Amino acid sequence: MADWVCKKCGYVRDSRCKPKKCPNCDAQNTFEKVGEEKKK
Known about the structure:
By secondary structure, the chain is mainly β. It has one helix and three strands; from the N terminus they run βββα. A three-stranded antiparallel β-sheet has the order 2-1-3, with no helix packed on it.
């Protein structure tokens, strides 16, 4: 399991696969794995 955060609204979801749609703001494909944004 991994924590995924929506780049648009900041919603965090614990999921094995990358979520396609944010249930909070309905944005498509805006999820990024928590911790990866620090590596870039």
